[in-house]
Write a structure and sequence with these properties.
The complex is a heterotetramer, with two copies of chain A (about 220 residues) and two copies of chain B (about 230 residues).
Chain A lengths: L5 E2 L2 H4 L8 E4 L9 H10 L4 E5 L9 H6 L3 E6 L11 H7 L4 E4 L2 H13 L3 E4 L13 E4 L2 E7 L3 E12 L4 E2 L8 H6 L1 E12 L17 E4 L3
Parallel strand pairs in A: 1-12, 2-3, 2-9, 3-4, 4-5, 9-11, 11-12
Antiparallel strand pairs in A: 6-8, 7-8, 9-10
Chain B lengths: L5 H9 L7 E4 L3 H4 L11 E4 L3 E7 L17 E9 L2 H9 L5 E5 L2 E3 L4 E2 L15 H7 L2 E5 L11 E2 L12 E5 L3 E6 L2 E8 L4 H7 L4 E10 L10
Parallel strand pairs in B: 1-2, 1-5, 5-8, 6-9, 8-10, 12-13
Antiparallel strand pairs in B: 2-3, 3-4, 6-7, 10-11, 11-12
The chains are: A alpha/beta (about 220), B alpha/beta (about 230).
Chain lengths: ~220, ~230, ~230, ~220
């Protein structure tokens, strides 16, 4: 049969996602949030999630709805500070010990995902050495510098926003929309992309930014 | 004594950006340095979300939510720009391909320790972002911050009191009243604002200050703050 | 007894390629499998130099030295193809995103150990290439090789005598006279060519053979070798 | 001054390269060999080189000229077997102990270069575990699998072939010409690209495959 990874509904896009899943959500600075899929995940009520997202609190990402709905038990991110002087929904839950938090330097966060997709179980990085984020982590000297051992992140589900997909699942992005999407797409057992356009014709090879090999389902959501 | 305002501090830091440099500018004052690069120079502004060659802010007609910098600001691309994903962008940063990063800070210690991510506000979540990678891995780490806290306390210290961003990383500090290098001997003042004595500056510092033999006056052109 | 020729062996292996699979084909016999994928299926041929979606060989008019596969053959792209760099291609392989790799081999052991890179020819340099990554990391590792060496010695062994490519990796072996699975119990013959008895096959093997309860005849259509 | 990384001659392209340099040479299967620069390096007579190239013996790469000229003291590669039944120049030198050889699985080779450019001093990989290529290397178990510790490769010089460069040093490739080029470009202190066309106008952002940040000099050599 012709390969065709396009699905027609959010239900189909999220079929089989279970409670307890580790969910990778792309997006940075307003670009690349898969907000249609994130809202569908919230409406689905899948719970006990580990949310892997660069920011736990970005205003333009609907990941905060997952948190507010009480569906998230743990967050892995590089930023978890609410924008307002008061406490965000995340911060309230965190204060009360109702949500677990792992904070990584943003480059380590990205590299852990890249490693997860690339079959690298662990790597050494200079980032975070000598800080409280390295507390309890293995430290090792190479040459004249100290490094921290970090381990790969692998998700059950990645929700990625892209601009165009084709039936093979190839993706291309607009501008800075890619950010964590390519790494997350490689690092999940099930990768679902929400896109402006999902077309039957192939994306020209030189324009493909994420190979369809990494993408299981694509959902066109328009605009 | 007339301390520099925030834009003048950014201007002063920008004067040290050299031709052809790859520079990453942190949120707040640092990002304003982009406006004050010396005329005739061409530099590459690296934004850690993957924009390599960030241009000026977009005007309303061209603002695009998909074309943002690390501060979520809607920007344009400079000629010669390209865009990579976050893992590749931090590979670039971590690999030492960024010549200088200019960061905001709360505290800097005399050994170059930097604290710029956590002010210990009760129950507010941590905000690390890319600062640790930049501080640990850029070839040069420069800081822009006021010399003192709002309450008048020191920010230049023997040891940081706040959680570190990275140890032994800061090379130069641009403040409202002085430009200070971090050297093997500790803080060395390179420039001091007119009307402030060395003794007064030392009194406002939390760590010993040395003064360069060619210590000069810190000066900047008039730049009005937008809300002034 | 008519053993399969090399193209028939490739044909037989290709019959096990399933719809939608991402498949990497090694040099020699394996690469010919691409020609025998069952009609109506669409698969993605991954070539470790970064071609994701390799198509048929290019004809002379379209041959391009910049569009080659892992065997330096000038190829075309299949619809839906893309091209990545080698580091990204092996990230794909190592990350377990290749469903099956079909490799040539010198020896396979009953525990799945594979030896396919070094025949210990004196002073000839080693040729590892991508075989170790593929053998260690593809979801399924299949082997195509003659059941016996040219001198009649066994290639299915209790232990490999040649240097390993990867331990415990081979799932299935397509040979000229049998299709053999590697299981926790050792070698299990799934198909055996007509006219060869189980005893004769065992006599030609260097390790014990089990026979599947539904062991069938190994058969392939006539395919002439190009030089025949 | 406007950034302009274009140089006019091979002499300018290789200026400052010293004896004892570690040289990264891209190319695979006939695509992406920087043969103009490799020949210029040979003619320059820079010696005592460590050659980092996927194949020590590929017929279409002029790296064999460096070896034949006796300029190479060590080769790091994934393939070093001559094509002919007899011994290649490399194999003769190797047999006589006149050239040092390090062989890595091709994926490890690529990843060591990527790590070198990405500030990762070392990483764990499943490739090569249980083989003689892992002899003497640290092995570690993560989860239910064993991995080998591999360390980054950093070059003094990378010679990369691309299709188009612009004055910022941005590169784009034709088809499978990229192969090891992007990783090598990031992993060297001095990266020189030989290209078909070196233009003043910028390559459109979406077509840039290697950022000029990684490229120091580009030399147009034509078709």
């Amino acid at each position: 049969m012709p390969i065709d990874k396009r699905v027609a509904s959010t239900a189909e896009a999220l079929e089989g996602v279970s409670d307890g899943a580790t969910v990778l959500c792309s997006g940075f600075g307003g670009a690349g949030f898969a907000n249609v899929l994130i809202r569908a995940l919230r409406e689905r009520g899948t719970r006990n999630l580990t949310l892997v997202s660069n920011s736990a609190t970005h205003r333009l990402s609907l990941t905060h709805e997952l948190i507010e709905a009480g569906l998230v038990r743990k967050v892995i991110c590089s930023a978890a500070r609410g924008h307002a002087p008061g406490l965000s929904a995340f911060e309230e839950l965190w204060k009360d010990g109702k949500i677990e938090l792992v904070v990584l330097p943003q480059g380590t966060f990205a590299e852990c995902l890249r490693a997860g997709g690339a079959g690298i179980p662990a790597f050494y990085t200079p980032s975070g050495f000598g800080t409280e984020l390295a507390a309890g982590k293995e430290v090792r000297r190479f040459g004249d510098r100290d490094y921290v051992l970090e381990t790969a992140i692998i998700g059950d589900l990645a929700l990625v926003r892209a601009d165009v997909a084709d039936r093979w699942g190839n993706l291309s992005f607009r501008h800075a929309q890619a950010n964590f999407g390519p790494a997350m797409a490689t690092a999940a057992k099930l990768t679902v992309a929400e896109v402006r356009v999902a077309q039957a014709e192939p994306i020209p090879p030189a324009q493909v930014q994420v190979s369809g090999v990494f993408v299981n389902r694509v959902l066109a959501v328009g605009g | 004594m007339q301390p520099l305002n925030r834009l003048q501090m950014a201007w002063r830091a920008a004067q040290d950006i050299e031709d052809g440099m790859v520079v990453n500018l942190g949120l707040g004052m640092p990002v304003a340095c982009g406006d004050y690069v010396r005329p005739g120079l061409e530099v590459v502004i690296q934004s850690e979300n993957g924009v390599i060659g960030a241009g000026p802010l977009a005007d309303k007609a061209h603002a695009d939510t998909d074309l943002v910098d690390a501060g979520s600001r809607r920007i344009t691309l400079a000629p010669g720009a390209s865009i990579i994903d976050s893992a590749a962008s931090f590979a670039m940063i971590r690999g030492g391909h960024v010549d200088a990063t200019i960061l905001g800070a709360f505290e800097v210690a005399a050994n170059g320790d930097l604290a710029n991510w956590d002010m210990r506000i009760p129950n507010k979540g941590p905000l690390v972002g890319g600062a640790m990678d930049l501080a640990a891995c850029a070839k040069s780490v420069w800081v822009i911050m006021e010399f003192n806290t709002r309450k008048g306390g020191p920010r230049l210290l023997n040891r940081c009191t706040l959680p570190l961003t990275a140890p032994n990383c800061v090379r130069r500090i641009f403040t409202d009243v002085a430009v200070v290098d971090v050297t093997a001997e500790g803080f060395v003042v390179r420039e001091i604002v007119a009307g402030l004595s060395r003794e007064e500056l030392q009194a406002r510092s939390g760590a010993p200050l040395h003064f360069a033999s060619d210590c000069r006056a810190l000066a900047a052109p008039e730049i009005a703050l937008p809300d002034a």
